[in-house]
Please model this.
Amino acid sequence: MSLESTPLRAVDGAGEPDLEQVAWLWLGRLQDTSDPAQREAFHAWLHGAPEHADAYRRAEALWRLSLAPAARLASEEAEELRVLMARMDAPPKPAYRRWGAGLGLAASLLLATWLGGWQPLERLRDLGADHVSAPGQVREVTLADGSVLTLDADSAVAVAYGKGERRVQLRRGAAFFRVVPGQRPFVVSANGGEARVLGTRFEVRLRGEGAQVTVEQGRVGVRASPAAPPHELTAGQQLAYADGQAETVQSVDTAARLAWREGRLTFFRTPLGEVLDELDRYYPGRIVLLDSRLAQTRVSGSFPSQEPAAVLDALQAVVGFQRDELLGRVMILR
Model:
C-alpha cells in the first residue's frame, strides 16, 4: 500500500501542525468509542472545511501503513508493563490493559509520540539503572574502581561490585569500557550473554535479542550464554551473539566502529535498518521504517551523530526512500 502523493506533513514545506494534530486526535478517539455524540462531533468537524477532510484522509492512510509497527510496539509495551507491575506487586490498571489488542493502534502511536518517542516505558526500565544517557547524549562515567565507561546515546547500565567480581549489566544501548586491571574479573552482562576481562578496552552493544562485543585493546572472553563455550577476542575483533548462539568472530576497523565516542557514526555496507537503529539514539523523537525490504539495503558512510536530520537527508539522497513527519516527533520512512 502506498500513500497519496501529498505527505501528511512535508519535510521541507510549511504545514498545518494544529490541524494535523486534531486529525490524529480524532483518528485515535474513533478507535475506542461508539458514542453517537462523539461520532456526530467528528462528522461536524470533518465537513467543516475541505482541509479537514484532507488532513484526516492523509492521517488515516499513514495510520494504515503504521499498523504493523504500532501493533508490535503496543504488544511489547503491554508485556513489559505487565512484568513491571508484577514486580511491584500491583495489578495492572485498566488504562494499561488498553495497550493490548483492543486499543486503536493510531492512538498508541500518537500517545507515544506526544510522550517523547516511547520514553515513558524506557524511564520505567531505568528505575533499576545506575547510569543513564539521554537521546543524543554521550556520557562518561568513572566507576568505583577507577574504570571508566562511556555510554552511547540513549543507553543505561546497572553496576554491582562485589568481593568476587565487578559486574555491569547493559540494560539499553551501548557502552565502551576502559577497565582498570585488577584481581577481580570485570564482567558485562547483556541479553543473556557476558563479556569478561581483567583489564582492557572494549565495547558492548545490544543488538536485537542479543549483543555485540568489539575489542579495541587487550583480550575479552565472551559467552553467548552461561552454558555456552567461551570465545576469546583480541584487539580489532568483534563477536555478536543472540539466543545463546555466537556468530563467527569478525575483524573490524575499531577506529571507525567506535567513532561514536568522537561524535561520528561510521558504517560500511551496513543494512539500512541497523543504521537507522543507531541514528534513532540521536534523533529527537522516533524513526520508523515501514519497508522491510528497504531495511536490508546496505549503505556506507561517516556522518556527524549530532546532526541526525542531515544524516537522513544524505541517506534519502542515496537510498531514495520517502519521508513523512508525524507531529514533529516521528519520522516515517517508506
User: Anything to note?
Assistant: DSSP finds eleven helices and 20 strands in the chain. Residues 67-87 form the longest helix (21 residues). Confidence is low (pLDDT under 50) at residues 1-17, 88-120. The CA atoms of residues 290 and 334 lie 5 Å apart.
